[in-house]
Each structure stands twice: as structure tokens, then as C-alpha cells.
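Protein: Cyclin N-terminal domain-containing protein 1
Species: Takifugu flavidus
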Amino acid sequence: MKFRDASADLLSDFLTNLNKINKFKLRNVSNCSENFRDARLTEYIFLMTKELKLDPAAGFHAVEILQKFIVKHLSELLTEPTPQGATEGGMFDMLKENFPVLIFSCVQLSSKLSFLTQRIDNDTAVRFLHSVGHSVSKQALLESELMVLKVLEFRINDPNPLTYVEVLLEVLGNNQPSIPVERLHELCHHVLQFVSLERKAIFDSLLVSTTQCASPSKEQRYGVVVPGQVVAVMAEWMSSWVGAPDSSSICQREAELECAVLKKKANLRKLPNSTLNREKFVAVTEDYMLLGVGVIAVASFIHWLEKWKQIVEELSHITGISSRSISDFARVTLMHIVRDPSSCNHLP
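Structure follows.
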């Protein structure tokens, strides 16, 4: 279903369902999940999605599939007995060798879930991987897809962050017809992409802001410290095949956002500090309802400053998330967009 096509009744059902899924996810979130959201992987998936001319939603969904796969598969490798005749190091080496194909498999699977984008067939997949230096057979591609599906128990259709943003935007437009949600829609895509790429820095700043602690521990940030072996493996994967991508298009979007926000700086006024209202900050980093309203708040600030406070209050009414929490998220994100810690300490 395309944006703005849903009826009021459908929107109510969508929002209720998203809220249930989000709450269930937060109750069962892995304490180490945040350790495996690497900005370089996210950037590669976004660039890959653009190169393949897929709908942006496919990129966000592929990031989610990959993150869940990494967390679950590594957890199984570290907790289950090593198969007879195999070594733990050998299993990690095999996973490292197949990692680029596994990433592509997540993109390919996400394309098959979308009605708005062309599906990637195996011929296209083989040609694309060959063009970036990976010679892979169709059989290997099928086995890679099946591996991802089996590890995730074929549950790959959970809503991604863009789904939350779009449903919340539609509800916002239904409740307040004067709000130009169609104009906000495209801008929200860019803001969400920026937040995804700058995720660690933004949430670290949000943690510092909410706890008033200049140097939070890793336990405060993520709940647990991931074993050094796993971190080392991830670092080796990154350095072994992720180079320096041509990310000029993404940098251009960041520059456009920065210019837009700088025009608003003169209108800022002070917002009181908030307090951390969750037991573990890792739950905040995985709260897609908060992410959704935060992204819309940032886009609204850039596009329609005069109505920003009204939009934040309506988002709070829709989701039950406090206006202060939404404002905190927006302030921290805007701070990173303009790359000036002192410029966004105040919001209208």
C-alpha cells in the first residue's frame, strides 16, 4: 500500500499492531544487539540498494534482517557445542569468507518482501556481485539465502524503522490535515538515513544528555559488554572487505540537512533537561516508536518551525511518548546534523 492510501480505520489497526510489536521487541531485546550495528555496513546496504534501484524501504529492511541474523547466529556459535570435526576458529573463518554474500542475501530477501520495488533475481544478483569483485554461483546464493532464513526461523517480515515513520506520519496527517505530511515524507527518509548512519554517536549523545554523565560506561550504554572475541571477529570482517566507499550522495544529503537546520538556529530557546526513564539504555536504542516520532520531529523542525511544538504535542498524544523525550531526541539529532554541540541546546 502506498503512502497516504490507508483509511482511518486501517491506520488505527496499523498503529496498534506496531505498538504491540515494538513493546514485544523491547521486552525481548538482546543486550548485545547495539554492538552489531556498524555504520559501514549500513552505508554499504544503502548504496547497494540505490545501485540496484530498489525502494528505500528495502534498504532499511535489509539492515534489520542483517542485524538480527548477526546477533542470533553469533550467539548460537558461541553458546552451542562445536560440531564434531570442526573448530570454532574454522567456523568463524567460514562465516567471514561468506559475509559479503550474506549481506547481499539480506538485501535480496528484503526486495522479495516489498510490493513497491523490483525483486532481485539470481541472474541480477550474480552480475552485481561479480561487478564488485565477488564470483558467486547461483547455488551459493540460494544456500546463503536459506542460511539467513533458517537462522531467523523464516521470520524476516518484522516492521523496519521506516514503517514506523510512515505510519506515524499518516496518522499525524489524518489527525491534523493542515500538516503537510507529504512534504515531510521525503525529508523523513533523509533524516532516518542520517540517524541510521550516525546511530552510535546520536544515541551516545542522548545518553549523556539524559543521564548528565559525561562518560557513560559500556554497561550503561548497551547493558552488557560483548566478549572481546566477538568484537575482534567483527572488526576483522570490517577491515577485510569493507573499504572506503564512494558515499558522495550520502554526504550531500547530510550537507543539505545541515544548511536547512542552520537557517533555524536563531529561533531556538532553552529546553529543560530530561531524566532517563528506562532501566537499560539499550531499550531506548531499539525503541522504534521513539525513533519514528524523533525523525518526524527533526523533519518538522527543518521544514515548518512555526508548527514544530504543535506537531511534537500531537506525536506525543498519538504514541504516549512524552513531548520532552521527543524534543530530547530531536535536539540531539539536530546537534549532529549541524555538527555543533552548542547550537542546539535550545528548542522552541
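Remarks: The first helix runs from residue 8 to 27.
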